[in-house]
Amino acid sequence: MAILINPEISPQSLIPKIRQLWKLSGVKIQRLQSRWKPGDGTPVFTKQGIYTTRGWTEWTQGFQFGSALIQYEGTGQDEFLLMGLRGTRDRMATHVSDIGVHDHGFNNVSTYGNLWRMGCEGTLPLELINREAWELALKVSGAIQAARWTRAAGGGGFIHSFNGPHSLFIDTLRSLRSLALSHQLGHVLMSEGGEQVSLLDRLVLHLEATIKFNVFLGAGRDAYDVCGRVAHEAIFNTKDGQFRCANSQQGFSGLTTWTRGLAWAICGFAEQWEFIQSRPSSQFPEGSPKAEVLKSVRNAAIATADFYLSQTPTCGVPYWDTGAPGLVRLGDYLDRPADPFNEHEPVDSSAAAIAAQGLLRLGRLLGKSRGKVYWQAGLKVAETLFSEPYLSTDENHEGLLLHSVYHRPNGWDYIAPGQKVPNHESSMWGDYHLRELALLIQREAQGQPWLRFF
Fold this sequence. Notes:
Elements: H1 15-35, E1 43-47, E2 50-53, H2 61-75, H3 78-91, H4 93-96, H5 104-107, H6 109-121, H7 131-146, E3 149-151, E4 157-159, E5 167-169, H8 172-184, E6 189-190, E7 196-197, H9 199-213, E8 233-236, E9 243-247, H10 259-278, H11 290-310, H12 349-370, H13 372-385, H14 428-445
Antiparallel strand pairs: 1-2, 3-4, 5-8, 6-7, 8-9
């Protein structure tokens, strides 16, 4: 079996759950804000319900302040707008010029990007709008992200991860928003000798590399080429630009599918489809015409979404990796709802929150006939996440979305006494994407414009 789609779910039918979500969410944002000291670093994930930091990279800061901005949009409560504005003003500037990460779309689009979008939509008080500053931040952020470039064999290339110039991460698909917004605002990357580098060109080349090397399309690339499967990382020889192998940092292996990486792919491809549609054909590089890029992105979006639908339990929440070794002990685990309290493998609700948004975007792009199954699947996942045991109703727990995992192979996730796998904890990216998912569905239910940047 796979996700059990209920055709009766609609955006309107989820509004009562969304109202409850905003109520719980506001208390949790305020609680964290009241006790968090900036000197402690960035909140990343919870331990016994309390947000803690992890000094790997500061990739979750934008989700902290972006959550307050999304809360304002969802509820109209000015205190959250001011919280998000102040956090962006006081803490996010260094992220704009951060040359060490592939996370600009996470940090800066979630903050400066949301502020800019709301300013364009006319949903901010006029006296608080600072569009020129936000646009400058987005322009610079996109160029800095694009400068993190590795040339691949055959004239291609990709934005490399913080692991180094050899490493292409699937996650970066969601960070391509930074290049897209910067290009949309008319910016270019200035390189050696005054060369002007098109951000759209680099975005397209990164998309093409990701589809070719991180996404499996059932074309026989190796013995494990199952259509729609995703590798977290692709490894390259930086001397000659040749692809060497599939790998994984946070999944079980390069030959299995880490489901949060799969979710980044579904959401990233759908959002890039929206962006590419908005650009005139004349802007695309000669070797990558718009029609061909759209076709390639469409195929990858559908393949990854279909794989998610077929490899996820009936409730829509996946286990953390489709090849996790303990899954065999769960029997027919795809034929029933996921069990976050099982003894063998954790679920990852954050993957579900990200994937749900991607499924809804894909369903909308494909239209009422072809896209209905993805649209209803996205709503099914949302209905699950907006309810217990995934929605945290305990005001003393600082997280909003329960049963998220961070780094299973490294053992970073807290395991409670009496439990054998991590559960009942939250992550900053999971909480943010649950709020973003709720806002997207709420706007659709109320007949407001579709939630997008392009």
